[in-house]
Amino acid sequence: MPSSDTTTLDVEAGAEDLLSTGDMARLTGNTLRTVRFYEEAGILHPERRSTGGHRLFTHAELERLQLISDLRAAGSRSTTFARCSR
């Protein structure tokens, strides 16, 4: 029997290696809105959506978001991000 401080996640089949929008934001130090902005701009591409409609991203998209964050911190413009996403 799990202890009361153990969190149980309901993971869909095949979604074990995919990351939610919240995971993407937390792991890169961005906000949820920032992740959604880049997705809406066509820079980030969710692999698929969960049965609940949540965006699920691959680790390659996580690396892309980290690169974008690093470029922003270095002073790059958003046009650079579009080139990085191709």
Could you outline the blueprint of secondary structure elements for this entry?
Elements: E1 19-20, H1 21-28, H2 32-40, E2 48-49, E3 55-57, H3 59-73, H4 78-84
Antiparallel strand pairs: 1-3, 2-3
Helix pairs in contact: 1-2, 3-4
Characterization of the model:
This protein has 86 residues and is mainly α. The chain has a single domain (19-84), classed as Multidrug-efflux Transporter Regulator, Chain: A, Domain 2. Helix content is 45%, strand content 8%. It has four helices and three strands. The protein has a three-stranded antiparallel sheet with strand order 1-3-2. A hairpin with a 5-residue loop joins strand 2 and strand 3. The longest helix has 15 residues, at 59-73. The termini are far apart. Mean pLDDT is 81; it is low at 1-11.
Outline of the structure:
The chain has helices at residues 21-28, 32-40, 59-73, 78-84, and strands spanning 19-20, 48-49, 55-57.
Number of strands: 3
The neighbouring-strand order within the major sheet is: 1-3-2
CATH architecture: Orthogonal Bundle
Low-confidence stretches: 1-11
Rg, Cα atoms, Å = 15 Å
Which term fits the overall shape? Answer: elongated
What fraction, in percent, of the residue positions are helical?
40-55%
User: N-to-C SSE series?
Assistant: EHHEEHH
The domain count comes to 1
Question: What is the CATH T-level topology?
Answer: Multidrug-efflux Transporter Regulator, Chain: A, Domain 2
The largest β sheet comes out as: 3 strands, antiparallel
Q: How is the quaternary structure best described?
A: single chain
Distance between the termini: 48 Å
**pLDDT averaged residue by residue:** 81
Number of DSSP helices?
4
Name of the CATH class? Mainly Alpha
